[in-house]
Amino acid sequence: MQSSLRVRKSKLKLKSEINVVPYIDVMLVLLIIFMVTAPLLNLGVNIQLPQSAAKAITTDKRPVVVEVTEDGHYFLDLGGGKREPVNADELKAKVAAVMRVNPQAPVFISGDKRASYNVVYQAMVLLQQAGVPKVGLASQPDAGDTHHGRG
Predict the structure, then answer these.
(1) N or C terminus: fewer CB in 10 A for the chain?
(2) Is 135:150 a contact under the CB 8 Å cutoff?
(3) Hey, CA dihedral for 111, 114, 69, 82, is it positive or negative?
(4) CA nearest neighbour of 75 among 55, 91, 97, 56
(5) Residue 149, pLDDT score
(6) Residue 149 has what DSSP assignment?
(7) DSSP letter string over 16-34?
(8) Average pLDDT in the 18-47 region?
(9) Which long-range CB contacts under 8 A does 141-146 form with residues at least 24 apart?
(10) Could you tell me if 85 and 73 are in contact, meaning their C-beta atoms sit under 8 angstroms apart?
(11) Where is the chain membrane-spanning (predicted)?
(12) Whole-angstrom distance, CA of residue 138 vs CA of residue 69
């Protein structure tokens, strides 16, 4: 009787190993999927951005306007209508001083449409470093737009 119990116990003994073969199969399938889709993620898509007849922002505070020229130079208008040429360090220092006095002052970037995107982006980075919480992009209304945003 004891021998039959021993035989049964040895047959019922559980394995303490994990079968990793299914996990390896799943991993290889995922690896193949990622290898096939990764090159497709870097492709660009040609898009045409929508044109808008957005209404102008009205504010009672004098806005700070940073103008970016086609050749990458900065001009700063602190709200008095007087444009002064500045370099990157001066721009950051002067706008930071304005933000310390009036943290809610609206700040706009007015970039030449022929200016490089990188130059406008660098101006935005400088303004962020100066402590500006929000930056608006200034533009002119579309001359050919007779719709004016009404349906």
Answers:
(1) C
(2) no
(3) negative
(4) 91
(5) 44
(6) T
(7) -----HHHHHHHHHHHHHH
(8) 80
(9) 141/53, 142/51, 142/53, 145/51, 145/53
(10) yes
(11) 20-41
(12) 13
Report the amino acid identity of residue 35.
M
Name the β-bridge partners of 83. 77
Element (H, E) at 107: strand 107-111
CATH placement of domain 64-137: 3.30.420.270
Q: Rounded CA gap, 67 and 138, in Å? A: 9
The radius of gyration of the chain's CA atoms, rounded to the nearest angstrom, is 32
79: left (phi over 0), alpha (psi -120 to 50) or beta: left
Query: Distance between terminal CA atoms of the chain?
Result: 93
Tracing tokens 């990458």 back to the chain, one arrives at 72
Q: What is the pTM of this model?
A: 0.53
pLDDT digits (tens, 9 = 90+) for 47-90: 454 555 666 656 556 788 888 888 888 888 887 777 888 898 99
pLDDT at position 151 over 50: no
Contact present, 75 and 109 (Cβ < 8 Å): no
What are the structural domain ranges in the chain? 64-137
Decide: 79 and 123 in contact? Cβ < 8 Å.
no
For residue 21, give the amino acid letter: V
